[in-house]
Amino acid sequence: MTISLPSAPHFSPVPSTSSPVAGSPGTGASGDSASRTGTSGASDKVGTSRDNSITALGRNATILSGDGNDTVDAGAGNDFVDAGSGKIFLGCPINVLTMDETVELARGSMRDRTRLQHVALNVAKLVNARSDRVLAADVSSSDVVSIDGMGIVWGARLLGLPVKERVAGVDLLSRLLAVCAEDGFRPYFLGATSKLLQLAVAQAQARHPGLRFAGFRDGYFKPDQEADVVREIRDSGADCLFIGMPTPRKERFLAAHRDELNVPFIMGVGGAFDVLSGHVQRAPLRMQALGLEWLYRIYQEPRRMWWRYARTNVLFAAILGRELVRHRLRAAPARLVGRR
After folding, report:
1. 271: nearest Cα among 174, 136, 170
2. Is the dihedral of CA 240, 245, 251, 257 positive or negative?
3. In DSSP terms, which residues pair with 37 in a beta bridge?
4. Are 181 and 210 in contact (CB under 8 A)?
């Protein structure tokens, strides 16, 4: 069996051309979207096209590991996030944030109705993005790229990035649902089967008393129904949207409709609805801490998961190993100069 290394991606956002609905939440009476100014001093607008390259956050980003892709910068149009958190890891933009920092960013987005798109990056997504332009564009056009997998945490630390902790997507979802219940924000769930989704909604409300949903819909709708789905989400007045649809369907949906949704905080949650509903059990905490949650997933769903993790883990180890060698070679001349 031969597995070839995918080349480093060119992370460029998928442009979207939709405009916001006049008079909708987050817009003025004339339909012009409300502007926001963040740490970089640049402005962004709710519901405007995000076809700009990933540069705003990266003005102050440190490229410690570009993997031949040093033209890429971190944080797509993201002056809402502290610029110091934007880094590049193996050619991929990431934000070095703690769980608490990420939660507060999401809370601020919902409170101020300023759009913030979040993506959770794990080993599989990083590897697949190197050969999947749609997935790479979704990562680059997101405002916050959290580090979901322990493999990313350890790899980034080996390359000198100041990663403090893992921000797992399923844990972030749970924290944000608690925020919604506490602050009166209303989430919208999109994805999974109808039966599983209803279980996830029921479990969320049981765990977080006072939580009110703006709405929910399963992910098994046809292309000609997308306009209805978008209209339902927009008309719901949701403060946050959690999408549990598979790649690349989620990415294509957001690329086509993110400007029409008019939801401040948007987050892809992968298989988190499966976990929330109780259909899939998470690995014991010890296995999570050791970075072996993937092994537990294989144990639960061997036929579906073994090849995915075998392939992406091997590729990631090879890509990281190659970059570690480059990193050491780049550091060698500096050490020699220091000895003189």
Report:
1. 170
2. negative
3. 43
4. yes
* CA–CA distance, 338 with 168 (Å, rounded to integer): 40
Q: Which residues of 157-180 are buried (b: 16+ CB within 10 A; e: fewer)?
A: eebebebeebbbbbbbbbbbbebb
Residue in this structure with the two tokens 């609805």, named with its chain if needed: 273
31 membership: H or E segment, kind and range: none
Range in 124-128, 161-165, 301-305, 315-319 the model is least confident about = 301-305
Give the pairing type, strands 187-191 and 240-244.
Answer: parallel
Pairing between β-strand 86-89 and β-strand 62-63 as defined by DSSP bridges: parallel
174-188, 209-223, 301-315: the lowest-pLDDT one: 301-315
| Model confidence pLDDT, tens digit, residues 145-188 | 999 999 999 999 999 999 999 999 999 999 999 999 999 999 99
> Pairing between strand 116-121 and 187-191?
unpaired
Specify which residues 204 forms β-bridges with: none
Q: Which residues, 6 or more positions from 30, have their beta carbon under 8 angstroms from its beta carbon?
A: 22
**Angle subtended by helix axes 249-261 and 226-236, to nearest 10:** 50
Amino acid at 163: V
What's the pTM value of the predicted model, to 2 decimals?
Answer: 0.76
Q: DSSP letter for 132, please.
A: -
Interhelix angle 99-112/169-183, rounded to 10 degrees, is 40
In 208-248, where does DSSP find H-type helix? 226-236
Pairing mode, strands 116-121 and 265-268: parallel
